[in-house]
Amino acid sequence: GKRSLHQKVVEELKHYYNGFHLLWVDTKVAARMVWRLLHGQVLTRRERRRLLRTCADLFRLVPFLVFVIVPFMEFLLPVFLKLFPEMLPSTFETESKKEEKQRKKLNAKLELAKFLRETIAEMAKRNKADAG
């Protein structure tokens, strides 16, 4: 059904609270990884990816905080997110945005697979023509 304005505001506040909480947890984990790196330990590929994602999220947080700090600028946030979709830290993404990203990646992979299949088929035809 239809949600009231109060429910929408509460949901948005919960979304941002959860996003900041996840970012805080990721930052603590990344700090431990940096500590391990500084003491000569090697990170796994998964840990390295998480560390890079967290660092990128912290850098993305700077322009995002401008929208939170400056009065009434939060009304422009949807416009800037439409123009710069990667501006928001990954912990603030909604499920629909994550699914949309996955769909785009899957479509790109399918297009690449189709291109490679056509290329291999064309190469096979050329080899057959050269051999015959």
Automatic annotation (TrEMBL):
It is a single-pass membrane protein. It comes from Grallaria varia (variegated antpitta). One of its GO terms (biological process) is intracellular monoatomic cation homeostasis. This is LETM1 protein. Keywords: Membrane, Mitochondrion, Mitochondrion inner membrane, Transmembrane, Transmembrane helix. The chain crosses the membrane at residues 58-81. The gene is Letm1_1. It is found in: Mitochondrion inner membrane. Its main location: mitochondrion. InterPro entries: LETM1-like_RBD, LETM1/MDM38-like.
